[in-house]
Amino acid sequence: MKNDNTSVDIDFAEAAVPHYARRGIVTMFMIMLGFTFFSASMWVGKELADGLDFGGFIISMIIGGLILSLYTGLLGYVGAETGMSLDLLARKAFGVKGSYLPSAMISFTQIGWFGVGIAMFAIPVANELLGGSTAAEWGLVIIAGVCMTASAYFGIKSLTLISYIAVPLVAILGTVAMVMAVKQGNGTLIDQFAKSSGTLTVVGGAGLVIGSFVSGGTATPNFSRFARNGKVGAITTVIAFFIGNSLMFFFGGISSVYVGGNDIFEVMINLGLFYLAILVLGLNIWTTNDNALYSAGLGLANIFGQRKKPMVLVSGIIGTVLAVWLYWNFTGWLNILNCTLPPVGIILVMSFFMDREKYKDVEVTENVNWFAVFGVVLGAVVANLVPWGIASINGMIVAAVCYLVGSKAKK
């Protein structure tokens, strides 16, 4: 890193998290579960419900959820064992300047999703509460942007506090609303899902499940590094990702089959739970958005050699200003960019397990590991262009082969 810090950095952007700053299994579970409460995952739940019967919905969710949990669990283990953020791990695997590529990718995508998340809150609430005026929409964008940026600015303690408040409320209120919708609907869940168009296969559904959060999941080490040890980091990550994502898919699926929407917000509005709907929507987005901005700040800090906090502010301002435009114009591009991050994650995991010794400290002498860089670029191209299989897994396989070949060639 370029700048020396004289004060203690409670987020340890430039160092491994020491043991005195580690957290236990309950706190880590709440942080990771809040991370997975991602409103855009509900959109995937709607797609699954529209294209599969109930049995196919469940099987796709289980298969995709297990694969996604395995991927993030490995990253969670590496982060907790080393105490290093994604960007410090990238310096080890990609070299000092080579790490700028994964840092830029994670920062760009997370700022993008941060902006989309703000708009996902502001636009429907403005429409329901304030008549959908542009002024109301932007007022809510600014308020949400400031609040979510502030929680990311104050770091892991703030993220923990938000998670402890939001996770139980979202899980309980959302589940109660889902059960109420099922009871008031015509027919059972199986009957409602049977009306789907049947346009998806189980494998296709599993691919949607994996793709729903595989890019954000690549940032798992940024949070799991605070776990007490690798076992805690892996276990909390695997369980949180499986439960959290499954809950979001159910929220989206139930919304689709009972009210024709794609969000638990619409279900709750339909049930007359207006203010609770706003609370659940806001908290659900907040728990993911502050994590996204936190990761973006760490990434930009690595690239520009600055402290994390100013970079969080810069990221928050950009995401807030562009929120509405990102929502209407950039979601498709963000989905393409999602395929570029799994190759990064698999290389970080391989680098650690192939040479644990070099992870005993944060010092790095290599400037660029070109095989790692080429692996990510080629993996991203294959993930986006090859039409068969699951895109993110295709990208990871190509990146892993490139990195493995390069590692052997360098010996």
TrEMBL record:
One of its GO terms (cellular component) is plasma membrane. The keyword Nucleotidyltransferase does not apply. It is a multi-pass membrane protein. Its main location: membrane. It is found in: Membrane. The keyword Membrane applies. Keywords: Membrane, Transmembrane, Transmembrane helix. NCBIfam families: PRK11017.1. Belongs to the purine-cytosine permease (2.A.39) family. This is Cytosine permease.
